[in-house]
Amino acid sequence: MRIKKIIALFAVLALFASACGDDDDAGTTEATTATTAAPVTTEAGGTTEATTATTAAPGTTAAPGTTAAPAESGGTLRVTRFESFDGWVMDSAAAYVSYNTHQAVMEPLIRFAADGYGFDPGLAETWVYDPDALTITFTLFEGAAFSNGDPVAAEDVAFSLDVWNAGPNFGGSWDSIVAITGEGREIVMELAYPDNTILPVLSGSISGIMPKDFAGMTEDEFYNSPIGAGPFMVDEWSIGGRIVLKKNPNYHREGRPYVDEVILDVVTDQTENQILFESGDTHVVEYLPANVAGQYDPTEVYVCAIHSLEHLGMNVLRPPFDDPFLRKAVAYAVDYEAVNAGLGGYYGPPSGVLSPNIYNWAPPSEPYFRRDLDKAREMLAQSAYPDGVQVEINYDSGNGVDALIAQVLQANLAEIGVDLTLTGLETGAFLDRAFTVDADMTIWNYGAISPGIHDPIIWLAATEWLFSGWETDTLWDLFFAYAEAATDAEMQAIATEVQDLSFNEAHAIGIGEGSYLHAVSQTLTGFESAPWGLYYYDTIAISG
């Protein structure tokens, strides 16, 4: 069943969502904030053609990007990250750092745009999605080839689709595709039904293109020495250790990538990361925690468009949070401004339970929760616990941001008579309690990873509305209605309905919206990140 497959798909994202919550060209001499323009609001129905090199809404298309070649190219781009790489099986990827690395080698047909709303060319130069004819027609770049020199063809895409769909985690994400045909540079995907989610899925690293029959290798041999048509090829790699990527001489974009080599190292100690960065021994430190970023020169902190959502889930499956008045008392007692202050100004008050700055995001019908102690006490008085109650909050002890927020919540809730016990757990133990809804309250962070509001809706369902235990049947109905909606207005109305359900029931609430952060050396040009913190290595050049 498709729903079961999607649940499995997004359950695996739990392994990286909290770790990533701690975050024109970057690398300039001023703080680089990637602001986001309003999305293109083209109707989803009818045929859409490639017309622009910038933002395109789902259902529309984009022409080749125009990133200019730098005055100088070459050299080694050095990156440190605190998460380990998952290996080259795309279906098994559970960390943002793996997504970044996969897409550099096994490039998808299209890329997500840095603004979080549209798409850019990948292996395909142009594409046309016709929901009436139920086809997506891709035109590959001239010379698109794998690193072994073999040209990319329709049979490679068809083979890749079979591999994707066989995956136990992400398999089923491409269910709408029923056939792939093509000749030369043209590839045609036939769909079983209109699907507003398919282009975002195809823009992710889970949709990387592989050579037919693994280029004559066994599956194990291929994943040990992968071949792709991306800007880089694998020189050496290990799980949890160093990865070295070399420039792919057969890459189809002339002059790209701009660096000859990328070296990726895992450094778990944030102090060591800062020393390496300040000494010039690394160019990028990925996913800075908000409580660490203030230690860096602010001109070298890349601030993504606001997208990260800190959230609180209250367990509705048992007392005391089966009481809606108590849940709302908590929601009005939170000092949202204090959360922002404690996180160095990189977070702000929430606007709902859906990550913002992606295509077809919409706010709730009413203004979202803000601190109002009088209203909180009024709600508490109407609850079954007018004299207060003692509850437990569960969080990942390794996440300094969530630990700080838990302390703010403890102080806030004490003001209305809710005594909060803080329980910080090792990541594995935390995830076990969170996904089994075995805590009174759970605090965590998430962000979508593709340009469409369907992405966070699926995450809400996979986590049973952020570990609250709230029913998900209604949410799945809304998801499938979104997938087949005919217009942007219909899709945005669905987003508002999801927001309203969360606001009215207060089983899961946003605590703060913030930015994913990277430290980026001023010697780099061409660094540009999507709101969720993913970026492309091949657009980056080293200027000095």
Describe the SSE topology.
Layout: H1 2-11, H2 14-17, E1 32-33, E2 76-81, H3 96-105, E3 110-112, E4 119-121, E5 124-130, E6 135-140, H4 154-166, E7 177-183, E8 186-191, H5 198-202, H6 219-224, E9 232-236, E10 243-247, E11 261-266, H7 270-278, E12 284-285, H8 290-293, E13 301-303, E14 308-314, H9 324-333, H10 336-342, E15 347-348, H11 373-382, E16 389-396, H12 400-414, E17 418-425, H13 427-435, E18 441-446, H14 454-462, H15 464-467, H16 473-483, H17 488-505, E19 508-514, E20 517-520, E21 524-525, E22 541-542
Parallel strand pairs: 1-13, 2-11, 2-12, 16-17, 16-18
Antiparallel strand pairs: 3-4, 5-6, 6-8, 7-8, 9-10, 10-11, 12-20, 13-20, 14-18, 14-19, 15-19, 21-22
Provide the descriptors you would attach to this structure in a database record.
2 domains; alpha+beta; disordered N terminus; D-Maltodextrin-Binding Protein, domain 2; 22 strands; 544 residues; 8-stranded mixed sheet
